[in-house]
Amino acid sequence: MNARPSIMALMALLMAGLAAAAPPRREVTAAAPPAAYPDADELAARLDSIAADPQVATDASGAIAAARVSLEQLREARRADRPSWSRTTERRIHTVQVEAEAARLEAMRVELERANERLQLDLARAEAAHARAELELQRLQAQIRAEEAERLRLAADAARMEGEQAVQDAEAARAEARQAKRIASAQKQADALARKEAELAAALQAPASKGAGAQVLVADDALFEDGSATIVRSGRAEVERLAAEIAKAPASRKARIEARGPNRTLAQRRAEALRLALREAGVADARMTVQAERSDRERIRIVLHGD
Amino acid sequence: MTPKRAKIHAAFVLFAIVLAACTPVRPPVDELAAASRALAAARDAGAPQWADQDYRVADEGLRQAQAAMMREQYDEAVAFARIAEADAEFAAASARAAKTRAEVERLQAENDALARTLAQMESRP
Any CB–CB contact under 8 A between B57 and chain A? Predict the structure, then answer.
């Protein structure tokens, strides 16, 4: 009976040691719920069904391998370690699914990226084509504008030339008018000469027809310059002619120098001037009288009359 | 040494052996390091942004593993670390999928807009 108490003590100590070691294990099972965790067979079936898809098998091969390693660990794990290995394996199976999804999305992304590049290219081409069309339109519009400008320029040139022609025409018309005036003036002069000639003719005929009747001598208009009462140098011959005419008449006849014009004073002075000139030409002063009258027409004549 | 004393000694030695067998002596440093690496990889994959929930689960798991390690409850620490590693891998994969999905959606919208613009441009005279 010597050994019995010590064996009892040893057993008690052993129990105490086991009790001291146990609590951590209980805590582990508390952290990973012990009640419902899938066992290795269930997880293996789940993994197999997911990996049966060849696309998944290819895309998530790494994750599948990791899950299978976990599954083996679960199969070989002590009972206490099984919950955490089950949880780990389950997580890795989820990871397989997510990896497969990520790979599927990545393929889509690549495809979309390619489509995006194609679209960008198409858009760039369309924009280029549009820009070319726009440019062509602009070019056509510019051409139309240029043609319009050219047309307007030509029209302006034509108008300018027409204007110059009009100016020339006006100038020509004015020249014509001047010419006409000159002709008219010449005509007037011719008329005046014709009248004077007629008067002279009448005066020459008068003594013959009327005998002792009055004789009229018409002095040349050119005796005086405009506005002047001085006989011009070239008028000498006319004065001589008039003196001769007076000398031809009978001595009893008197000569009345009649001057007319718009300016009566000028007419008077011209009459006086002719009287002086005739006296110098030999006509007796006593035979001569002067008379000035206002008239619209300038005229100087000498009337030889009886008394 | 009496036989009785020898028996007592033997009992103590046996007790010590049993105690050593029952308590995991090796701190699960490798397992925690692996979990920590997996979590860092998940961070790099953008998990905190793209798979926030999954990342937090893994992160919390690693914390619990570390806390167990501090308490020297190594079996518990190993279990937490093992699960945290798998959770972190899952979070990384989720983040990659989410990122790719967002990119797919963006490209789809962009391509639709481009196709519309192109159709408009081609319908223009």
Answer: no
